[in-house]
Amino acid sequence: MAKLADSVHVKAIPSARKQRALRRTNVIGWLFASPWAIGLLCFYAIPMLMSIYFSFTSYSILQPGEFVGMSNYIDLFQDPLFWKSIYNTIYFTVFFVPLSIFFGVALAMMLNMKVKGMAVFRTIFFLPTLVPQVALAVLWMWLLHPNFGLVNGMLAHFGIDGPPWLGGEAWSKPSLILMSLWGIGQAVVIYLAGLGDIPDEYYEAAQIDGANWFQKTRKVTIPLLTPVIFYNLVMGMIGAFQQFTLPYTLTKGQGTPANSMTFYVMYLYENGFRYFKMGYASAMAWILFIIVMALTGIVFITSKRWVHYQGK
Rounded distance, CA 54 to CA 68, Å? Predict the structure, then answer.
């Protein structure tokens, strides 16, 4: 019995040491993670929860406000500019996201070719993403100026009367889509990574079966690239609904002409920080959150039908 007790005591000592070491490791881990956790709590979680309460009040930053129930939401649905901002945002999303996927995949396939000096072309297409959005807006304002812009000047040499671009209600949003497509280099890099992950064996098998380039693209490249397309679709859709910097800089926050460039987040910002209707802006923020979450959920549900993963 004495020997058995000594054996249990000897085994208990390493076990206790392991537990102390494990606790010390956990404490060190939490200490390293604490800056991120504190930042998440203070700058995201708490403000988000507070905004729920503010959306039911007349809070205006300068005054605490009073509880008004659903008044902010009712006023929003009766606000014509609210609906206009939703229309502008959906218009931009519907056209920009598919076009960015199409041109992004096409550019990535071209940049994936085994051609000498391809690294230079990849760098050229990625460089626009490094330009700040404010500088990008200023650059395109000069390029698309209806009277003195470089684009209309080049069209005039061919006898073509250029459109008003940012100066016309019908052309303002297409102009913004054109500017945004100029900066799809980051998505192209992700598509290139996805193309590099496709095994060559699939193309060799297709070659043996007599498939041409188009058939290889349709039956091999696109299906195996769908996980990356799915990722860029979700991120692009979320980013499109949060469009702010370009239209705000181009119109100096006015949304001209005729509010055709008043996007949802712009109108939210104006209500919150220009008119100090923070309760109204908080209600807008939560409506945007619900819309984005609903659309993202739909994309995730439908992805089971068209996203194909290797080995599945």
Answer: 10
Contact 184, 104 (CB under 8 A): yes
CB 187 within 8 A of CB 236: yes
The pLDDT tens digits of the residues spanning 148-165 come to 899 999 999 999 999 999
- Answer yes or no: are the C-beta atoms of 182 and 128 closer than 8 Å: yes
Query: Tens of pLDDT along 76-86?
Result: 999 999 999 99
Residue 178 has pLDDT above 80, yes or no: yes
Q: Report in angstroms the alpha-carbon separations of 87 from 36, 73, 84, 255.
A: 37, 18, 5, 13
Distances (CA, A) of 205 to 49, 168, 308: 55, 52, 18
What is the pTM for the complete model shown? 0.89
Question: Between the CA of residue 90 and those of 74, 134, 167, what are the distances in Å?
Answer: 21, 23, 21
Q: Which two tokens stand for residue 178?
A: 């054109």
244: its two tokens: 């702010």
CA dihedral (113, 115, 119, 125) positive or negative? negative
